[in-house]
Design goal:
Distance between the termini: 62 Å
Shape: globular
CATH architecture of the largest domain: 3-Layer(aba) Sandwich
Number of helices: 15
Strand order of the largest sheet: 12-13-14-11-10-16-17
CATH topology of the largest domain: Aldehyde Dehydrogenase, Chain A, domain 1
Helix content: 40-55%
CATH superfamily of the largest domain: Aldehyde Dehydrogenase, Chain A, domain 1
Structural class: alpha/beta
C-alpha cells in the first residue's frame, strides 16, 4: 500500500510513499525499546544539549520545513515559517526547564525523608493531526524526550513528508536513531501498536471519534493516554469591551490556518448593546482577507487541507441554512481549482443546526446575539466541547470572575486563545483530558514515584 502527499492548492499528488510493512514496524519498535534503556540513563545536561541542537536545526532550515508544510496541507508560507520558529522555541524551553520540572520533590513528613521522583516510562506513541503538523508533534516530543522517554510518531496520512522531516530534525540534532521515529502506517494499525507491551503510553491530538477509539483500546491495555480533541471555542464580547479591538482580533482568531485549528474561536457570542458594531467591523475585515496561493506573499488564507474536508464543511453550512441560519458573508466555495472555501459568517443559529451543535473546522464563524452576560455564559457552555475560550471586557476584575463560569480548559481575557510552551494546554468534556506543555505536560508521561527513607 502507498501513502500519498497531495497539494490541496491543485489536488495534485506530490509524492507517494510505501507504508511501513509489519517487519519494518517491528524493527522500529525494537530500536525504540533498546534505545530507551540507554536514553533514560543520560543526564538532563546531555539531553539539553541535543534539544538545543534540534532548535538550531529547525531555525536553520525553517524555509525548507515550512515549504513542506505549505505543499502538503496548504498553510500560508508565512504561517508555516512561524510554526517552525515556534517549534524551535518549544525545544529551547524544555531544554532549559525540564531538569527543574522533574527535580525530586520533597514531601512533608515527620518520619524519615520522603520525596517524589519523576522517572521516564518508555516508548510513547504519538498519534498526530495534519493541521499543525510540526507544532502538535514537537509540543509532545520536546518534553517527552527531555523526560527520558522515546517517541514513535504515527502522523496523519496526508502529511507523510512532515512526519519524515520531524524524524530528520532529531536525527540531524544528534539524538540516538531510536529516540524519535516516524511510522508511515494507516490508522487501522494503531490498535496493534497499543497492544504491544513496548508501547507504554499514547497521546493523541485529533477528532473526538479517533480519541474515543484510542482511549478505549488503551484502557483495555491499561495504558496512560492524553487526548486533545475537538473544540468549539466561544469568543465572548461584553457590553464594555473594546469592540474594535475585539472584532479585529476575532478575524485572526477564526481565520488563522484557514480556520483549521482546535483552539480557533468558532462561536462569537456578543451582547446586544454592541452586536451591530461588532458585526459591522467583523464582516468588513473578514471580507477584506485575500484568498489565494499560500506560497504568495500577501495571501491571508489558502486552501483547506483536503478536498473532502472542504466538501464536508460546505454540507454543514448548507444544512444550517436549510434549518434557518442566515448567511452574513460567504457561505460557499469559489469556482477554482483546489480545496478552497470562502470566508463565511453565519447568524440566527439555533440548536439542531450543524453550525450550533458541531465543530466547524474551517473558515466559518458562527455569531450569536445575546441579551446579557448570563445568556452569554449559557450559550458558551451549551457545547459538548470545552477546549478554550476568551472574554472581552474593560473590567478586568469582572473578566476574572466571568472566566470561572466558562467550562473549558483555558479562558483568556482580552486575548485570543493560543498555545505557549509555558502554559498548560488541554480540555474538558469531549475536548479530551490530560495536559500538554508546562510542568503539567512533562509530568504526564513519567512515573511519579514515591520514595520514603527511614532515618
Amino acid at each position: 500500500m502507498s501513502m500519498q502527499s497531495t497539494n490541496p492548492l491543485n489536488n495534485k499528488v506530490i509524492k507517494e510513499f510505501e507504508e511501513h510493512s509489519d517487519a519494518q514496524i517491528e524493527e522500529i519498535l525494537q530500536k525504540a525499546d533498546a534505545t530507551y534503556y540507554q536514553w533514560r540513563k543520560t543526564s538532563f545536561e546531555e539531553r539539553s544539549k541535543l534539544m538545543h541542537k534540534a532548535a538550531d536545526v529547525l531555525r536553520n532550515n525553517k524555509d525548507k520545513y515550512a515549504q513542506i508544510m505549505t505543499d502538503e496541507m496548504g498553510k500560508t508560507k508565512q504561517q508555516a515559517i512561524a510554526e517552525v520558529e515556534k517549534c524551535a522555541l518549544c525545544c529551547e524551553y524544555y531544554a532549559e526547564h525540564a531538569a527543574k520540572f522533574l527535580a525530586d520533590e520533597p514531601l512533608p513528613i515527620d518520619e524519615g525523608e520522603a520525596y517524589i521522583a519523576y522517572d521516564p516510562m518508555g516508548a510513547v506513541l504519538a498519534i498526530m493531526p495534519w493541521n499543525f503538523p510540526y507544532w502538535q508533534v514537537i509540543r509532545f516530543a520536546a518534553p517527552a524526550l527531555m523526560a527520558g522517554n522515546v517517541g514513535i510518531l504515527k502522523h496523519a496520512s496526508n502529511v507523510p513528508q512532515c512526519a519524515l522531516a520531524l524524524e530528520e530534525v532529531f536525527r540531524e540534532a544528534g539524538f540516538p536513531p531510536g529516540c524519535f521515529q516516524s511510522l508511515l502506517i494507516p490508522s487501522k494499525k494503531v490498535n496493534h501498536l497499543l497492544e504491544d507491551p513496548r508501547i507504554k503510553a499514547a497521546t493523541l491530538t485529533g477528532s473526538e471519534g479517533a480519541g474515543s477509539k484510542v482511549a478505549a483500546k488503551a484502557g483495555q491495555e491499561l495504558k496512560k493516554t492524553v487526548l486533545e480533541l475537538g473544540g468549539s471555542d466561544p469568543f465572548i464580547v461584553l457590553a464594555d469591551a473594546d469592540v474594535e479591538k475585539a472584532a479585529t482580533t476575532a478575524v485572526k482568531a477564526r481565520m488563522q490556518n484557514c480556520g483549521q485549528s482546535c483552539i480557533a474561536a468558532k462561536r462569537f457570542i456578543v451582547v446586544q448593546e454592541v452586536y451591530d458594531q461588532f458585526i459591522a467591523v467583523f464582516k468588513e475585515k473578514m471580507a477584506a482577507l485575500k484568498q489565494g496561493d499560500p506560497n504568495e506573499e500577501g495571501t491571508d488564507y489558502g486552501p483547506m487541507a483536503r478536498e473532502d474536508l472542504a466538501d464536508e464543511l460546505l454540507e454543514q453550512v448548507k444544512k444550517s441554512v436549510e434549518k434557518g441560519a442566515e448567511v452574513l458573508l460567504g457561505g460557499d466555495r469559489p469556482v477554482r481549482e483546489g480545496a478552497f472555501f470562502n470566508a463565511t459568517i453565519l447568524g440566527k443559529l439555533k440548536p439542531g443546526m450543524p453550525a450550533y451543535d458541531e465543530e466547524l473546522f474551517g473558515p466559518v464563524a458562527s455569531v450569536f446575539k445575546v441579551k446579557d452576560e448570563e445568556e452569554a455564559i449559557l450559550i458558551a457552555n451549551d457545547s459538548p466541547y470545552g477546549l478554550g475560550g476568551c472574554v472581552w471586557t474593560k473590567d478586568i476584575e469582572k473578566g476574572k470572575r466571568f472566566v470561572r463560569q466558562v467550562d473549558s480548559g483555558a479562558v483568556y481575557i482580552n486575548k485570543m486563545v493560543a498555545s505557549h510552551p509555558a502554559l498548560p494546554f488541554g480540555g474538558v468534556k469531549k475536548s479530551g483530558y490530560g495536559r500538554e506543555l508546562s510542568h503539567l505536560g512533562i509530568r504526564e508521561f513519567v512515573n511519579q514515584k514515591t520514595v520514603w527513607l527511614e532515618k
